[in-house]
UniProtKB/TrEMBL annotation:
Entry protein name: DNA mismatch repair protein MutL
Source organism superkingdom: Bacteria
Keyword flag Signal: no
Native organism: Hartmannibacter diazotrophicus
Key words, A-Z: DNA damage, DNA repair
One Gene Ontology term, aspect cellular component: mismatch repair complex
GO molecular function, one term: mismatched DNA binding
GO biological process: mismatch repair
Family per record: Belongs to the DNA mismatch repair MutL/HexB family.
Domain DNA mismatch repair protein S5 intervals: 203-321
Protein purpose: This protein is involved in the repair of mismatches in DNA. It is required for dam-dependent methyl-directed DNA mismatch repair. May act as a 'molecular matchmaker', a protein that promotes the formation of a stable complex between two or more DNA-binding proteins in an ATP-dependent manner without itself being part of a final effector complex.
C-alpha cells in the first residue's frame, strides 16, 4: 500500500505548490467561505490549510486517507465532474511522503476528530477541539525520500510557486476569502467578491488595479461554450505564462492549445512579441471536455478543440479591434 501510494504521490505531489492546490481544492469542494493558508520553508517544512467548510464525519475521516476513497464520484459520474477533486488520491499520497495531520469537525458529530499519517503510517483517531471546518497540516514534505527533496527548488522559488498557485485558486473561487501567510512572505489577503459581483473585485486583488483599469471585458459564446474574462491591454510584457490565467469549468489549466490560441488572438493584430495578461474563464458542458488527462489536472482535452481555438482567437481579435488597435 505504502509503495503504491508513494508512486501515486509522484504524480499528484510534484512540489509544495501541488500540495497547496490539492488541499485548497478540497476546501472549496467542502463549501468553504474562508480558506487560510500558512507555509514555512517554501512549503517544505510546513503547509497548513484551514477552512470553514462542512468538515468530515468520523468514518469519512478514516476513509479520506485511504487510496481511491472519494466521496465525490460514482461509477456513472466519471464524465460529469463538477467537483474539483475526484480521484481520492491526494490525501493518501501526501500522507505517504510527509507528516500529515487532519483535524475536522462535521456538524453531525459531538466534537471534532483528528488523525495523523506519517510516511504511510496511520494513527488512531483522536478527539479534536475545533468548532467546525477542517485543518490540514503537512510537515516535512519528502523527508523520507531525500532524492525527491533534492529535486525541489530553493525555498524562495517554491514560495513563489505557491503564491502563483494560490492566485489561480483564488481567481477560480472569487466568493471565498483567501489568506496566505508565513514568516518568509508578505501576507496576501483576498476578501470575498460580493455575492452579486462580476468578478472584478477578485481580479483586481490578484492582478492589481492597473490591470482591471486597462482591461477589456470578454464575453463570447459559440455552440454552448461560453468565454468570459478580461484581456489587459495596458499590461503588455514578454511572453510569460504566469500572467495568463485560464480556467475551464472553474479549474485552472495551463493547456498548450489554449495558450496558443490566446497568443494567436493578438499576435496577428499586434505584430509584436509582447503579450497582454489575460484572465479567461471557459464554461463548457463537462461531457465535451476531459479533465482526466493527468492527475494534476493542468491539461485538458476537448472533444472539439477547433471550436475552442476559434472562439478564443475570434474573441481576442474582436477585443483588439474594439480597443482601436
Ligand atoms: P478527492 O478530492 O479526489 O475526493 P482527496 O484525497 O483530495 O480526494 O480527499 C479525500 C476525501 O476527503 C474527499 O473526497 C473528501 O470527502 C474528504 N476531504 C478532504 N479534504 C476535505 C476538507 N477540507 N473538508 C471536507 N472534506 C474533505
Ligand atoms: Mg481532493
Amino acid at each position: 500500500e505504502t509503495t503504491i501510494n508513494r508512486i501515486a504521490a509522484g504524480e499528484v505531489v510534484e512540489r509544495p505548490a501541488s500540495v497547496v492546490k490539492e488541499l485548497v481544492e478540497n476546501s472549496v469542494d467542502a463549501g468553504a467561505r474562508r480558506i487560510e493558508i500558512v507555509t514555512a520553508g517554501g512549503g517544505k517544512t510546513l503547509i497548513r490549510v484551514a477552512d470553514d467548510g462542512a468538515g468530515m464525519e468520523r468514518g469519512d475521516l478514516l476513509l479520506a486517507v485511504e487510496r481511491h476513497c472519494t466521496s465525490k464520484l460514482t461509477e456513472d459520474d466519471l464524465l460529469d465532474i463538477r467537483t474539483l477533486g475526484f480521484r481520492g488520491e491526494a490525501l493518501p499520497s501526501i500522507g505517504s511522503v510527509a507528516e500529515l495531520q487532519v483535524e475536522t469537525r462535521n456538524a453531525a458529530e459531538p466534537h471534532g476528530w483528528s488523525l495523523t499519517v506519517s510516511v504511510g503510517r496511520k494513527s488512531e483517531l483522536r478527539p479534536a477541539g475545533l468548532s467546525g471546518g477542517t485543518r490540514v497540516e503537512v510537515r516535512n514534505l519528502f523527508f523520507a525520500t531525500p532524492a525527491r527533496l533534492k529535486f525541489l527548488k530553493s525555498d524562495r522559488a517554491e514560495t513563489a510557486a505557491i503564491t502563483d498557485m494560490v492566485k489561480r485558486l483564488a481567481l477560480a473561487a472569487p466568493h471565498v476569502r483567501f489568506t496566505l501567510a508565513g514568516a518568509d512572505r508578505k501576507t496576501l489577503d483576498f476578501p470575498a467578491e460580493p455575492e452579486n459581483g462580476d468578478g472584478r473585485v477578485r481580479i483586481a486583488q490578484v492582478m492589481g488595479e492597473d490591470f482591471v483599469e486597462n482591461a477589456i471585458p470578454i464575453d463570447a459564446e459559440r455552440e454552448g461554450v461560453r468565454l468570459t474574462g478580461f484581456i489587459g491591454l495596458g499590461t503588455y510584457q514578454k511572453a510569460n505564462s504566469l500572467s495568463q490565467f485560464l480556467f475551464v469549468n472553474g479549474r485552472s489549466v495551463r493547456d498548450k492549445m489554449l495558450l496558443g490560441a490566446v497568443r494567436a488572438g493578438y499576435t496577428d493584430v499586434m505584430a509584436s512579441d509582447r503579450y497582454p495578461a489575460v484572465v479567461l474563464f471557459i464554461d463548457i458542458d463537462p461531457h465535451q471536455v476531459d479533465v482526466n488527462v493527468h492527475p494534476t489536472k493542468a491539461d485538458v482535452r476537448f472533444r472539439d478543440s477547433g471550436l475552442l481555438r476559434g472562439l478564443l482567437v475570434g474573441a481576442l481579435r474582436a477585443a483588439h479591434v474594439a480597443a482601436g488597435h
